[in-house]
TrEMBL record:
Its EC number is 5.6.2.4. It comes from Candidatus Cytomitobacter primus. Belongs to the helicase family. PriA subfamily. Residues 370-580 form the Helicase C-terminal domain. Keywords: ATP-binding, DNA replication, DNA-binding, Helicase, Hydrolase, Isomerase, Metal-binding, Nucleotide-binding, Primosome, Zinc. InterPro entries: DEAD/DEAH_box_helicase_dom, Helicase_ATP-bd, Helicase_C-like, P-loop_NTPase, PriA, PriA_3primeBD, PriA_3primeBD_sf, PriA_C. Residues 175-337 form the Helicase ATP-binding domain. The keyword DNA-binding applies. This is Replication restart protein PriA. Zn(2+) 1 binds at residues 389, 392, 428, 431. Initiates the restart of stalled replication forks, which reloads the replicative helicase on sites other than the origin of replication. Recognizes and binds to abandoned replication forks and remodels them to uncover a helicase loading site. Promotes assembly of the primosome at these replication forks. It is an enzyme of class 5 (isomerase).
């Protein structure tokens, strides 16, 4: 009997498709959700089978599916992709591309596997990450050099005295909600045991042979979390590495239980048996993708949990105002933890015009004399934040952006927006004066240099996103009291535990709180609260000194007097009075091109429709007018929180008929407005 060709509609991950489905034939029965290899213009690309086709085209005129791949996205995942696309206005082909980017061209080879094998530690690597050299692995298993340990699927007994009453209550509440969709907020100050609580939720999911996704803000800061995970479960979780995602695909696409820890892109792993999602430090701005397709991983994770009918736990000591508002007005389940040991903190607000007040310097010396550790926080990378020509007063700007450059001690500059780096020019580009640069503004490199002069006999280290290659080493040294003074940026706000750290200095506590960004004050509250929570965590009392040039700001007073709940209520009232998020929603549309004149012309020519309940503001030049060599204008769309105007906005966007050299960026619920 001859083979009968069947027709299938396939989604391709390319913009030229405009989300249209393309029809291909195959003599195999292919289930919807299957990944297939498709021939396109003398090359092969990966597509997603959506359905059997009802196309009337003759089968013989269709191209044939080249290969049916051994990966399948289940119906819940495809439903979630559609929901995420409609919410974020990211086209389906881009959603598929974000899923596939971790699959294509990412197969770890013999060399990478051998590096892992040669550096094996007990329980360190999931077996799937080693299978590319399976012959060598089987030999090592046979000879007893390594062994396979499965994720536990039965409860691991723990001493009942390990948990406080608050924690036991929280664990019971979460377990009660384990088998259906709930949005759970787990709030508690640093040191209250949030991680131990959500570990028990993970244990419950593993007992049910489910998969678990744990989202974290920074993968480079997960070493302590990974070790704590191993202490609890006796195995290591999967980690979402850029260079080693193929084995995670192999695991996630099966129904095998396990845990994946990763940053926002881990959300796109092809889970087929997901039972729980955890978003750690849910307030973190790094969950928002600011380049490429714009999305907030926390929001998309909530949509995923709803489509999978599973619980999601949002964890933070300082939840976002959006989350706090949802606790008050929506169906978010709120669980609050208190510290098992009172947090003994002496918080001082110090007004100063210099980078180092007498009070802070005195406390640093006292702390060092006691052989205890100091942490200094300033959310400014580099050496100096402003570079001026002393001859013509020209400020050195990024060539790709209308933004000032930051100077680093290594004699290079970088742009904090587009991240371009370059050598410091020897002459001013405006007046051509040689060696005329003057450096202003404080960065952590300058603090590092000055601290080394003030305390020459002490070990001083620096930590920021510029030093990610030494993060694990620096953290290890801090844990073992091999560093006396640690200086860093917001990377210090992430969850880390240093028992001997008893002094935190906030060098400039008022950075950003007077800017026009509606969220900057909230971010400073979260950063300062998280950083100050790093000290006095063990049995030693801690001191926090917040330096400021303006000691009258309500936020700083609230933190100093540990009365932030009142400040948060006031901040919510201010937002409500001005109808700002979370009491309304915003969509930002950015029109950009390489030509300033063309961008302005197109932006001003766009007709704004009148849509009930929706206010469209603009167009206007973007706050950062030139960004990454593009000139930008933007619209702001504000609407009622309970509305869902994405369909009308999508139709408006489709009606724009923009030229090919004009780029359109859509940002639903923007977190920044540069």
């Amino acid at each position: 009997m001859p083979n009968v060709s069947l027709k299938f509609d396939v989604l391709l991950p390319y913009s030229w498709t405009n989300d249209e489905l393309y029809t291909y034939k195959s003599n195999k029965q292919i289930e919807p959700g299957t990944l297939v290899s498709i021939p396109i213009q003398n090359r092969e690309i990966i597509g997603l089978v959506i359905r059997r086709s009802s196309d009337n085209n003759c089968v013989k005129n269709l191209k044939e599916v080249k290969e049916v791949l051994n990966y399948h996205l289940n119906a819940k995942t495809i439903k979630w992709m559609n929901i995420a696309s409609k919410y974020t206005l990211i086209p389906m082909h881009q959603i598929l591309k974000m899923i596939l980017v971790s699959y294509k061209n990412n197969k770890p080879g013999y060399f990478e596997t051998n590096i892992i094998i040669n550096n094996l530690e007990p329980g360190k690597y999931p077996l799937e990450m080693l299978k590319t050299n399976w012959i060598k692995l089987k030999k090592m298993i046979k000879e007893g050099e390594i062994s396979e340990t499965k994720f536990p699927t039965s409860s691991i007994p723990i001493d009942a005295d390990f948990f406080s009453d608050d924690q036991i209550y929280a664990i019971n509440q979460i377990n009660h909600m384990a088998n259906q969709h709930h949005i759970i907020t787990l709030q508690g100050s640093t040191g209250s045991g949030k991680t131990n609580v959500y570990f028990e939720a993970i244990a419950k999911a593993l007992e049910q042979k489910k998969q678990v996704l744990v989202l974290v803000p920074e993968i480079s800061l997960t070493s302590q979390l990974i070790e704590r995970f191993h202490d609890r479960f006796k195995v290591y979780p999967y980690r979402w590495y850029n260079s080693c995602k193929q084995p995670i695909w192999d695991w996630a696409s099966k129904e095998e239980s396990g845990v994946l820890i990763g940053v926002r892109s881990a959300l796109w792993a092809p889970f087929n048996n997901l039972g729980l999602i955890i978003v750690d430090e849910e307030h973190s701005t790094t969950y928002k993708q600011e380049n490429g397709p714009r999305y907030n991983a926390k929001d998309i994770a909530i949509l995923k949990a709803k489509s999978e009918n599973i619980p999601i736990i949002l964890v933070s000591a300082t939840p976002s105002l959006e989350t706090l508002h949802n606790i008050q007005t929506s169906n978010y389940k709120h669980i609050q933890l208190t510290r098992t040991i009172p947090h003994k903190l002496n918080i001082q607000l110090v007004k100063t015009k210099t980078w180092m007040s007498t009070e802070l310097q005195k406390h640093i010396q006292i702390t060092l004399n006691k052989k205890e550790q100091v942490m200094l926080f300033l959310n400014r990378k580099g050496f100096s934040t402003h570079i001026y020509c002393s001859t013509c007063s020209n400020r050195l700007l990024c060539k790709a952006c209308t933004a000032g450059l930051i100077f680093h001690k290594s004699n290079h500059t970088h742009c904090s927006y587009c991240a371009q780096k370059s050598d410091l020019p020897s002459a001013c580009p405006e007046c051509k004066a040689e060696d005329s640069w003057k450096f202003y503004g404080l960065g952590i490199e300058k603090i590092h240099e000055n601290i080394q002069k003030l305390f020459p006999n002490n070990i001083v280290s620096i930590l920021s996103s510029d030093t990610t290659e030494v993060i694990d080493e620096t953290m290890h040294k801090m844990e073992n009291s091999e560093i006396d003074i640690l200086i860093g940026t917001q990377i210090l706000a992430q969850g880390c535990h240093f028992p001997n750290l008893t002094l935190v200095g906030i060098v400039q506590g008022d950075i950003g709180i007077h800017s026009g960004d509606i969220r900057n004050t909230e971010r400073m509250y979260q950063l300062i609260s998280q950083v100050k929570g790093r000290c006095g965590r063990a049995d030693k009392p801690g001191t926090v000194i917040i330096q400021t040039s303006d000691d009258s700001h309500p936020l700083l007073h609230a933190i100093a007097h540990e009365n932030v709940d009142h400040w948060l209520e006031q901040e919510l009232q201010i937002r409500k009075q001005h109808n700002l998020p979370p009491f309304s929603r915003i969509i930002r549309i950015i029109i950009s091109s390489k030509s300033a004149a063309l961008t302005e012309k197109i932006a001003l020519s766009i007709h704004k429709p009148k849509i009930p309940g929706i206010e469209i503001m603009g167009p206007a030049p973007a706050q950062l007018y030139k960004y990454n060599n593009d000139y930008r204008w933007s619209f702001l769309i504000q609407y009622n929180k309970k509305s869902f105007p994405q369909l009308q906005i999508s139709k408006w966007i489709q009606s724009m008929k923009l030229p090919k050299n004009i780029k359109l960026t859509i940002d639903v619920d923007p977190q920044s407005f540069f």
